[in-house]
Each structure stands twice: as C-alpha cells, then as structure tokens.
Design brief:
Strand order of the largest sheet: 1-2-3-4
GO molecular function, one term: hydrolase activity
Low-confidence stretches: none
Largest sheet: 4 strands, parallel
Protein name: Calcineurin-like phosphoesterase domain-containing protein
InterPro entries: Calcineurin-like_PHP (IPR004843), Metallo-depent_PP-like (IPR029052), UPF0046_metallophosphoest (IPR051693)
Structural class: alpha/beta
CATH architecture: 4-Layer Sandwich
Shape: globular
Pfam families: Metallophos (PF00149)
Radius of gyration: 19 Å
Distance between the termini: 32 Å
CATH class: Alpha Beta
Strand content: 15-25%
Length: 254
C-alpha cells in the first residue's frame, strides 16, 4: 500500500473493522467505554490556571492552495504540525500567510514532504527573516503564555514508508521503550508535544509511532500526517489504555 493511499484512505465501517480483526474491534469498543470514565475524571480535575487557546493545523495545503482554506479562529498560539509538498511553497507560506496571522505565538515543524528543511542554511534563514515564528526540529522551547510558562517540543519524524524526508527505520520495539531511541531527546517536562505523525494506536490507522507518549505524557499532543484520521482523543494513562495498546500490538491484554 502506498503512502498516499494510507494518508487519504477513508475510515473503515464498523463491519469492515470487525471482519479485519474481531479482537481489535471488541478491544476498541471496550476501550472507548472505559475512556468515557477517564474523560469525566480528567475534566473534574482541571485546574483554575489561566486558560490557553491553541489553534492546531496540519497538512493544510499540501494538496490545496492556502488562500482557498477557511480562516483560522483566534487563539493564543498557532501550531502547524506541517507537511508541504515543494520548497517553492515555503516562501509564500511564510511571507503571505503564517507570518501575518494574529496569534501572539506561532510554532511550526516540518513533515515528510519538507525536504528543504534538511538544509541547515534554509533553517538558519528562517530565524533571520521571520523572528515571530518558532521552528522546532528535535528541540524544545519555553514560552510565557497568559502568565503560564509552557514547554513545547517539535519533531518531524515518522516511520519509514517511501522515499520521503524525516523518516526513521521501522522496527518492532516494545510499547514502553520507543523506536530506535528516536524520541529520547523529548524532555520529561514537555507540556505540548508536536510531531508530524501520530502515536501508535491513537488516530493513526495503525501507522503511528510506538513509544511516543508514555514516558513524557504531555498535556497536549498535536500531530497530522494521517489525513482521514483527524479527530481528538483524551488519554488518561490508565491500565485500560495500556491493555488496549498491548492487545493491538499482540503483546498482551486486560
């Protein structure tokens, strides 16, 4: 199956999911019922800290012209978990769109189609020309937002599929240790994790990164890559979540 077919494939119907794997189908049903309890528990423990509104976008104009997209809502931070098809699109994006957005903080990362950002000279030029933009590539930054200090970490890497940029070899690691230590540089105190690809078994069509979340457990994880899987999910870091992931990885269960 090609990368493009994975990125744009339609979600499976419940019947198709059942036929593909009855075990995974029932595991997901049970996990969703458990997740509702986790979401209620998390909501009850929200602090009274000043709120921060984050506007998240990704893969927004790889296949569509930016000016034809809907306007963005207002917010304190604008984050792009990016993917752009050609080097020539970066300059107009930064000049005419991203740099002109009204959000006080604007952060972006690269994606698997962004080969131009392999070029150190190009990355350095971003700092000089666009001082209001923060580009993260295997590094973190701390920002003051509404009286709160938040730490952001960004990475463009995804599991290998096709001849694209910012990919790492696929392996079969455990759920706990991660893949090839690719995520070992994520600081333990990260608040907002930004990666181009999703974590494994969560909004990923089984194409996500294993070991991406459990060590750092960020307050917010923003990602794209799998176009048809756009959604939100609240994780409670529970035994049920761990068991669900182990069932899908064929390494255990409840």
């Amino acid at each position: 199956m090609s990368l493009d077919s994975i990125l744009h494939r339609r979600p499976q119907t419940p019947w198709e999911q059942f036929l593909k794997s009855p075990l995974a189908f029932y595991a997901e049903l049970f996990y969703k019922s458990c997740r509702k309890d986790s979401e209620q528990w998390i909501s009850s423990r929200l602090t009274k800290s000043p709120s921060v509104r984050v506007v998240c976008i990704s893969d927004r104009d790889t296949h569509n012209r930016q000016e034809l997209q809907p306007s963005l809502p207002v917010g304190d931070i604008l984050i792009r978990a990016d993917e752009r098809a050609h080097f020539t699109k970066w300059k107009p994006l930064l000049h005419t769109w991203l740099n002109r957005q009204s959000h006080p903080h604007k952060i972006f990362i690269a994606g698997n189609h962004d080969s131009c950002l392999y070029n150190p000279g190009f990355k350095d030029s971003l700092k000089d020309k666009f001082s209001d933009l923060v580009y993260l590539q295997e590094r973190s930054v701390s920002l003051q937002v509404n009286g709160r200090e938040l730490t952001f970490y960004g990475s463009p890497f995804t599991p290998q599929r096709g001849p694209w940029s910012f990919q790492y070899p696929r392996t079969t690691p455990s759920l706990d240790t991660g893949e090839n230590d690719i995520w070992s540089s994520i600081p333990n105190n990260v608040d907002v994790l930004i990666t181009h690809g999703p974590p494994r078994y969560h909004l990923d069509f089984r194409s996500g990164c294993i070991g991406l979340l459990w060590r750092v457990r960020p307050k917010l994880h923003i990602f794209g890559h799998i176009h048809a899987a756009r959604e939100t999910e609240i994780l409670g870091w529970t035994k049920d979540q761990k068991a669900y992931e182990r069932i899908l990885s064929r390494t255990g269960g409840w």
